[in-house]
């Protein structure tokens, strides 16, 4: 019998790529989004190879645990990618301008509570395997570490909130709540930690929403930055990230896993992009010495057996794809 998996966040950048990978591997997939009647989103998912036969889409909202019931029926695992970062309070105030109380109530708590709602539904359905998408914003301990591993790079939520980084704190709070829940209910939990993700996206909306660094220079003739930033960035091809999720599920892996490549200075990322666009589109050069890039130990990531691309390959691949104007 074909195994069914549930993907929460089917219409998202990560969720849609998990669906593509799961369909390619022969699974039946139940995908969720808030409005499964929204054909501007569903038509792209239903056009994936295998979707007509093996993909079903359901409406579900993380604020309502019961809404996830139908999508979890008969599933063996859930892939949760339905908690994009919250940058604004309900009245539009930027998260970084909130005080501790509002920052916690409006930015941090909804993600924790939403995740627990999805996990409650998962438990009720008897589903024992949970693959959760988090972010490297949960990997910044106050004292810093020379080389990050998944076990030494753990953010301190109180410290982040004291610095008004509520949008980062939401991730470590979500991870901690999910871990405690899964330990209590004997469910396997694997957590994935991506940063910027690029790729040949499935929904055209995701070009505008997620690929600014490449898409703006290539499609709009204007760089995303005025000046090359002095810092560094870790990125990954979202197809590689999706493979990490599926491999972790299939191999029984648990715990946290980086889902990035080596971090590179923005200067290097832009010089890779410069191979694919006219120089006039590049941001003004950064003057001075770039900050030291974050260093990672990828032992756990690589234990999942995914042949990861690198930043250079991803930038080249996705730039050429964008230049072909894939959605017209
Ligand atoms: N994109 C990146 O570069 C990036 C970087 C680092 C980490 N991440 C992490 O990756 C995960 C997924 O992000 P993404 O970039 O794929 O996000 P996304 O493209 O914004 O997709 C979010 C998905 O969640 C669904 N969703 C939103 N609110 C929901 C709610 N209240 N209840 C149920 N479903 C809801 C959305 O569906 P509808 O809107 O159609 O309802 C959509 O399917 C997040 O944990 C994010 O922090 C992403």
Secondary structure: elements and pairs:
Blueprint: E1 4-8, H1 13-24, E2 28-33, H2 39-46, H3 51-54, E3 55-59, H4 69-72, E4 77-80, H5 100-124, E5 129-133, H6 157-162, H7 166-184, E6 188-193, E7 196-198, H8 205-210, H9 212-220, E8 232-233, E9 235-237, H10 238-251, E10 255-258, E11 264-265, H11 266-273, H12 299-303, H13 311-323
Parallel strand pairs: 1-2, 1-4, 2-3, 4-5, 5-6, 6-10, 7-9
Antiparallel strand pairs: 8-11
Helix pairs in contact: 1-10, 5-7, 9-13
The chain binds NADP nicotinamide-adenine-dinucleotide phosphate (NAP).
Helix content: 40-55%
Biggest β-sheet, characterized? 7 strands, parallel
The tally of domains stands at: 1
Strand order in space, largest sheet: 3-2-1-4-5-6-10
Task: Give average pLDDT, whole number.
Answer: 96
**Helix-and-strand structural type:** alpha/beta
Q: N- to C-terminal separation?
A: 39 Å
- The radius of gyration computed from the alpha-carbon positions, rounded to a whole number of angstroms, is 19 Å
DSSP strand (E) fraction? 5-15%
How would you describe the shape? globular
Low-confidence segments, given as residue ranges, are: none
Name the bound molecules: NADP nicotinamide-adenine-dinucleotide phosphate
Quaternary structure type: single chain
- State the CATH superfamily name: NAD(P)-binding Rossmann-like Domain
Total E-strand runs:
11
Order of helices and strands: EHEHHEHEHEHHEEHHEEHEEHHH
* CATH class type: Alpha Beta
Q: At the third CATH level, what is the topology name? A: Rossmann fold
CATH architecture: 3-Layer(aba) Sandwich
Number of helices: 13
């Amino acid at each position: 019998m074909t195994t069914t998996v549930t993907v929460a966040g089917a219409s998202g950048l990560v969720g849609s790529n998990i669906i593509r990978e799961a369909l390619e591997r022969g699974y039946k997939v139940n995908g969720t989004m808030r409005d499964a009647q929204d054909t501007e989103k569903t038509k792209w998912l239903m056009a994936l190879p295998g979707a007509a036969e093996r993909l079903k889409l359901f409406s579900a909202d993380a604020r309502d645990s019961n809404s996830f019931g139908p999508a979890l029926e008969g599933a063996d695992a859930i892939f949760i990618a339905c908690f994009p970062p919250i940058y604004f309070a309900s009245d539009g105030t930027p998260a970084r301008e909130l005080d501790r109380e509002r920052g916690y109530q409006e930015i941090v708590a909804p993600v924790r509570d939403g995740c627990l709602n999805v996990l409650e539904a998962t438990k009720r359905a008897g589903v024992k395997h949970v693959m959760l998408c988090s972010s490297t914003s949960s990997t910044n301990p106050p004292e810093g570490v020379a080389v990050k591993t998944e076990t030494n790079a753990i953010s301190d939520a109180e410290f982040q909130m004291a610095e008004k980084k509520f949008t980062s704190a939401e991730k470590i709070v979500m991870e901690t709540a999910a871990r405690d829940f899964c330990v209590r209910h004997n469910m396997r939990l694997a957590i994935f930690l991506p940063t910027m993700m690029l790729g040949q996206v499935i929904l055209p909306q995701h070009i505008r929403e997620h690929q600014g660094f490449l898409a703006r220079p290539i499609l709009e003739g204007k760089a995303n930055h005025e000046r090359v930033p002095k810092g560094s960035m870790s990125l990954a091809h979202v197809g590689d990230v999706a493979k990490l999720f599926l491999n972790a599920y299939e191999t029984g892996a648990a715990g946290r896993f980086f889902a990035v490549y080596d971090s590179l200075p923005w200067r290097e990322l832009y010089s890779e992009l410069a191979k694919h666009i006219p120089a006039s589109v590049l941001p003004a050069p950064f003057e001075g010495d770039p900050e030291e890039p974050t260093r990672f130990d990828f032992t756990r990531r690589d234990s999942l057996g995914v042949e990861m691309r690198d930043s250079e390959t991803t930038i080249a691949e996705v730039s050429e794809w964008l230049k072909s104007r894939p959605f017209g």
